[in-house]
Amino acid sequence: MIEARGLTKHYGAKKAVDNVSFTIKPGQVTGFLGPNGAGKSTSMRLMVGLDKPSAGTVTVNGERYSGLRAPLAEIGVLLDAKGVHPGRSARSHLRALAATHGISDARVNEVIELTGLESVANKRVGGFSLGMGQRLGIAAALLGDPKVLILDEPVNGLDPDGVLWVRNLLRHLASEGRTVLLSSHLMSEMAQTADHVIVLGRGRVVADAPISDFVGNGTARVTVRSPQAAELASLVMTGRPDIDLQPLDRGDGQGFSAAGLTAAEIGEVAAVNGIVLHELTPVTGSLEDAYLQLTRDELEYAAG
Ligand code: ADP
């Protein structure tokens, strides 16, 4: 469990994180989303004590990071995969970390195996690809078998197999009852990995919801094709200012895309009025649509 209450971080006049409160629950994967500069990394740095809040608090399992006696055993962290001495081998890097916590060599070998690093474990980290570096960062995060994992862009630089591997690993760790927080700029990846999403924009929480709600929320549309499209459109719109109708890209006037009502409702209006339908397709909004809708204001602000 990670709890932020009124969490705030200023850099001079800049509010990187602005009075943010949220709870990240165990047993699920929570995704941190938001445009660049939204405050994701700063929030993560505050969680793990790499920065001090200007106001408010953030605790991990009820404790501030600085109060943890054996941090590796409580929180696994992947923030900057490049923070490893390039002259060391992967194995000696992990052993050095393990030694600070009395963690056994057997556990070092276990995480090497778990992260698929066996063949390169004795090679210098300086020669690692970005993907290998990410695997090593994840190995280090898992070393203390922590209940909480905080990973900033864990799939960055991984090939498709690696992406799938991280997704399965995170889902597995959450299913064991761990708290898993990850940030990613890859919306499609987040949609497949996260159970819950917190969207930040300009240092504030823009959304905090289960991914199913978030995707369904205002973004589901229905595609309609009919030779009487205009007539059907005016019938469904009657007395419903909340409905959003857009012509289809084809522009032949034979169809529209509607948000704010279901395919069933449109089908019933068509049947009652004897209107022929050629297509009636519910289109579930993607996380990307929902995300773009939520952050449009932030992006406009940035562009202006
Ligand atoms: P994200 O991770 O969502 O891209 P960050 O947390 O890195 O966002 O940044 C949030 C805001 O705080 C940005 O405007 C960034 O420029 C600013 N910021 C972050 N770290 C510092 C710092 N050390 N000094 C000054 N400004 C910073």
What keyword list fits this structure?
alpha/beta; ATP hydrolysis activity; P-loop_NTPase; 2 domains; 26% strand; ATP-binding; Alpha-Beta Plaits; Rossmann fold; AAA+_ATPase; binds adenosine-5'-diphosphate
Q: What's this entry about, in short?
A:
The chain is α/β, with parallel strands linked by helices and 304 residues long. The protein has helices spanning 40-47, 71-74, 90-99, 105-114, 130-142, 160-175, 187-193, 211-216, 229-237, 263-272, 287-303; strands at 2-11, 14-24, 28-33, 55-60, 75-78, 148-152, 179-183, 196-201, 204-210, 221-225, 244-247, 255-259, 279-283. Helix 3 (90-99) crosses helix 4 and helix 4 (105-114) packs across helix 5.
How would you portray this structure in words?
- Belongs to the ABC transporter superfamily.
- GO terms for molecular function: ATP binding; ATP hydrolysis activity.
- By secondary structure, this protein is of the alpha/beta class.
- It folds into two domains: 215 residues, 3-Layer(aba) Sandwich (Rossmann fold); 63 residues, Alpha-Beta Plaits, CATH 3.30.70.
- 36% of the residues lie in helices and 26% in strands.
- The chain has eleven helices and 13 strands.
- The protein has a six-stranded mixed β-sheet, sandwiched between helices. Strands 11-12-10-13 form a four-stranded antiparallel β-sheet, covered by helices on one side.
- Helix 6 links the parallel strand 6 and strand 7.
- The site of adenosine-5'-diphosphate (ADP) has 11 residues, from strand 2 and helix 1.
- The site of adenosine-5'-diphosphate has 11 residues, from strand 2 and helix 1.
